[in-house]
Amino acid sequence: MKARVNVMLKNGVLDPQGAAVRHALGAMGFDGVNDVRQGKVIELDLADGTSEETIKSMCEKLLANMVIESYSIELA
Amino acid sequence: MKAAVLVFPGSNCDRDMAVALRQSGADVTMVWHKETSLPEGLDVVGVPGGFSYGDYLRCGAIAANSPITQALKVHVERGGYAFGICNGFQVLTEAGLLPGALLRNAGLKYICKTTPLTVATTDSAYTSTYTKGQVIGVPIAHHDGNFTADQSTLDMLDAEDRVAFRYADNPNGSSHDIAGILSANRRVLGMMPHPERAFEAAHGNEDGKGFFDALVSAVVPA
Q: pTM for this structure?
């Protein structure tokens, strides 16, 4: 089984990289980009039957830093 | 005083940290990250700067889960002293031994320069040789030194006098100008600037020497 974990900075945490991407888009002539938030996608290839609880534990112990980031899990 | 300096793959300030500790009078052992225990009778553990595990995932995240870090947690829970400089600070926050997190610098650039720090408290084993409000010059060299924490944590750090150093001229966007903080029992310190790089005359600046002098004199019974 596969799982996809999306990790994003929490709302309210300043994202300097997202801001830089927004500025670059504006400089390239793309108008109307109000905000950009940059995160990461982590794909996990897991033994069949791995529980969502186990994946959550992976996220909270390693894949995301819960002080600044939130995560979501998509099971494929 | 018995000190250990942890060495992760990608650590690059470990020997500088060991030199500074030795010259201050400590007996220093280097400990590889795969070890599961620290030497017996240890007083203080140093977590050095560098790029542990290539800074993959997040700076310090993988080091925070390596075997030796579990032994470090036991040492800290027993009331042992520990300090992390630069990547070491990132490791200590990722390991949950200090609050907050270090984000990408607000200006997005890696910054390497000597920066003025204000000594925010002298009530610690690391800062007792300085005077409160004293400005010292200490080099920084980091890409992810932008300290952040939620408002209640920032308020707590201020209320409990747990900010050790603040930037006099905030170079990286850190909340409350924070350059270094202490744990609740004041025995664990993390800071982004490198006192071990301002330690002897050959460095052109000895402002960091007081940090190691304070630590060695605090931990050795007089």
A: 0.94
